[in-house]
Amino acid sequence: MDKKVIRSHLSPYRGGLEARRPWCRASARPPTLVITVSVVAALLVGVVLFGVRLTPSGGNNTWVSAGVRDVLNAVSSKQGITAAGPLATVPDPSDRLLGGLLSPDFDESSCLSRYRAALYRRPSPHAISTYLISALRRYESLHRRCGPGTSAYARAVERLRASSPNASTSSSSPSADDCSYLVWNPIEGLGNRILTITSGFLYALLTDRVLLLHSSGGALDDLFCEPFPGSTWILPEDGDFPILGMGSLNGGHHESLRSVLRRGEDPGAAAWLYVHLRHDYSKIHHDQQFFCDDTDAALRRVPWLVFQSDNYFVPGLFLIPRHEAELSRMFPRRDLVFHHLGRYLFHPSNTVWGMVMRYHDEYFAEADERVGIQVRRFRWAPISTDELYGQILNCTQRETILPVPNVAATGGSDGQPTKQKAVLVVSLHGEYSEKLRDLYNSNNNGSTSTTGREAVSVHQPTHLGAQRSGVQEHNQKALAEMVLLSFSDAVVTTAVSTFGYVGQGLAGLRPWVLMSPVDGKAPDTPCRHAATMEPCFHAPPRYDCRAKTNGDAGRIARHIRHCEDFPQGVQLVE
């Protein structure tokens, strides 16, 4: 094997994996701790409610969180409660399964990124609920039993076909072992698609449904690996599926939730229903009743649900009372939903992973620190290139994310810079990376010594000019850039951008958010350090299910607040 390839797989950081990550060494062992049960309980509460910041313990290259975890297990063993285990654990950085988040039941060669991507990211300090891990294993069993290619799936499709008005035969009576399904219908760009698939998966997890993706026109071909062992999450495109024209479904369709509620019928009596959760649904109370307890109960009886959304509607699921207890057990910290589910679901195909590795090895493998800057311009928020570039520079230098150039500064004792900082710029346009590169390329072989004795290099994988969500190669490049962004040590994103939401969530970082322009000008505060890494639900329901009138979703639950980057939306916070 080529030496460069070996380095890319084993030494994602400069100096090698062991040099950067001492906790991976075989000789490292947690220190012996003498601690009372009450203190252990307090530490556990801290892990569950507030997460853990990994902190070096002395000079022996061990980590406090590992010691706490071992003490918790030891105390549980003495008390005879090992079967229950701790409520949440911080994944060991050397654990390829991410603390049990990922299933071991895959052939690694079929999806190289599944067990390797975490090696290139900052170690996640965020605890994973053992209840979530159990729920994922249960779901995998359900999907294996009910997914495409199984007899249960064939029976479910046959009953659906028999329920159509033109059916010539009647279906058999449903049994307790029958499977229910949630079918995702694609719309908008890749960022929106990833966020809506995540939302649909959480809904499926809560309601014992099997999530299937309608890959219209091959929208997902060679993009993601299969996330569930022994099955597929792609709805078969055999032309024989009974629900026709899924790409043209809308809220006014006869079999939509909106239409059924308007007719005063029981939604639970339908063989299938379309649920319209696109941004324009907020004008229609009947669509928004999807987030009401009584409607949720009725939909439990519908074997097939088809939905289309351009929203990260996870916060809306936290508004449904019947799911509160389950969600609190899965996510003791509410602001980690996408971080955990995104890393569980989305693994780049080998084709996309090859793109990621080639770019990483060429430009980032030798860096001491990596900074990701994601730039997006929207028609509804116009701003000139120069104005936006000034905002980026003002933000990154004011917050010491990037240094202020000073060609007169010296480096180390040999005159060389003491720190290599690689900057990844992700944008449809190349002007911003070019301006940054010109700024930092004015001295010393493309790097500029600075007051912080840092050498800065600027890189941009693509600048495609326009978003083309229907083109496979475009989607593959977009996904590769999202993954590269998630390798960053610090992230700057653009307000309201779903692309940025995905990158920051996979990275497990609270981003610095470039705030939207005001009258074409950068705001006085160029960026803010986000209070949460969770994406924003841009179009939350305005219908108060309990009061049966208009309401404010940002004032119903203490862990749901209006978004900093888009005040009309809401997001999960801790």
UniProtKB/TrEMBL annotation:
Location of the protein in the cell: Golgi apparatus, Golgi stack membrane
Pfam families membership: XG_FTase
Record-annotated membrane-spanning stretches: 30-52
Gene Ontology cellular component list: Golgi cisterna membrane
Superkingdom of the organism of origin: Eukaryota
EC primary class: transferase
GO biological process, any: cell wall organization
Family from the record: Belongs to the glycosyltransferase 37 family.
Protein's job: May be involved in cell wall biosynthesis.
The protein's name in its UniProt record: Fucosyltransferase
Record organism: Urochloa decumbens
